[in-house]
Structure formats: C-alpha cells, structure tokens
Amino acid sequence: MSAWLPTAPCTPQACVEAPAGLPARAVPRAVLRLTGVALLLLAGIALSPLGARIPASLIRRWCRWIVRAAGVRVRVTGAAAPAGGLLLVANHISWLDIPLLAAVRPARMLAKTEVRRWPVAGPLAARGGTVFIDRDRLRALPDTVARIARALREGAAVAAFPEGSTWCGRAQGTFRRAVFQAALDAGVPVQPVRIGYRVTGGTATTAPAFVGDDTLLASLWRVATTRGLVAEVEVRPAIPPGSRPDRRSLARSAQSQETAMPAWTHTVLVA
C-alpha cells in the first residue's frame, strides 16, 4: 500500500449533513455565491502569470474572498506564520481548507495528481506551483520528499494535509510522517494549523466535508446552500527546527489530538 493512499472511512451518506428543506430563495442565493467563486478563480488564473510579483497580502485576501463568496465566514486565531522556509500542515475536511490554509500564508500546495484534472481549480493549482504527488507509487516518495525539501531550503512555504485524505470533521486521521522528513532535511519550522467548521450559534457541522465518493459539484452546492457556515482557523505555535529528533515525533507534535469522536470509534460507526 502506498504511503500516500487515503484511508478515511468517511462517506457522504454516513457522515455529511445536507441542508434540509431549502426555501425557494436559497437556490438563487446559492447560484450567486457559486458565480462569485467562479469569477474569483478565473481572476486568479488570469493573474497567475505574474507569480511572485503579486503581494502576499493580496493573495491572502483573495483566498478569504473565495471562502466568503461561498457564503462562509472566516475566523482566524493565533499568531502570524513565520517568514522564510516553512512547512504548513493542517487537518483536512473540505476543499475550503486549501484557500483557508493559503490565507494563513501563501504557499506551494502538496496535492494528489487528480487535482490537476479538476476544472478551473486544476489549472490554477498548476500555475501556482503546486507539488503534485502520485500516492499510488511508493517508489516516487523519496523524490517527492526531496523536491519539497529543496523548495523549503529556497525559502518557500509548502502546505500539506498529512492525513492523506479528507475526514468529515467528527474525527481525524493520523498525520503521515513522510512530509515531515522534508522539514527535517531542510531545517525549517513546521506550522500546525487546525481547521474546523461550525454554523452560527457554535454547533459543529460536517456540511462542508468533501469525503469518499462525494463529487466536487455536490460539495460546492452543499456549502453554498448551508446558512450560517463559519470556518475556524487556529494557527498554533510553530515548531522550531531541531526541537524534535525524528519525523515520527515531529508529526505527533504537529497534530491536534482534539477530536469530537475517537478515530477508531468513528471508523466502526461508519464502516
């Protein structure tokens, strides 16, 4: 089995809360939201040839605008991410996690090769310097780690979701260790980020989750039609280089152990 192969048990049928009883006015509002998201993505593709000449502050605002255009409010807590080479890592629930993590600090994303084929978002990811990985080829893993380490040594930020797959948010997977080897090799800090989703009033929700055999279109529509969604982004203290002896302990330190339900219990319930 590949070290990158996802293992999450979550499925849309078992885990995801769909909006119930959509009022008539919700449909045009959702269409308007998705139109806004599409326009922002197209604007990003048009400006992507400018590359490093685009200010990081503008990229962060653009990423927030995408999430906000989808009807999701953003709440960020914690200190600003450090400058220089940096490995950003976060739990993975939704496609929304990508712009949310970039809003913390613009970075080269680590993504599965399938993302390259996504409409609109795929070309944007490729132009943005995304490092694509083939999770089914274990022999490609050392080269991928070396490419990430090289980018980190050059002062770039690289963002990854080390669980290897999306979970619905009720529980989380275990951070895979391979990507942390790149941070060790490059001698750069690791910036843990915790992402969660709630509705107005504070109740956790799985509506934004993009899991299992869910389609991107179905997930987009669910997000756009869910009222009162709030994305909570917690920027945790960065882990300085040299403070952990190996990738195992580094991965363990970077992962939040706070889950609404133990992972093994969740796996049994949805199996």
UniProtKB/TrEMBL annotation:
UniProt keyword Lipoprotein, yes or no: no
Species for this entry: Streptomyces africanus
Record protein name field: 1-acyl-sn-glycerol-3-phosphate acyltransferase
Molecular function terms, GO-annotated: acyltransferase activity
Entry superkingdom: Bacteria
Pathway(s) the chain acts in: Lipid metabolism
Residue ranges, annotated region (Disordered): 240-259
Phospholipid/glycerol acyltransferase domain location: 86-198
TM regions (residue ranges): 30-52
Presence of keyword Oxidoreductase: no
Keywords: Acyltransferase, Lipid biosynthesis, Lipid metabolism, Membrane, Transferase, Transmembrane, Transmembrane helix
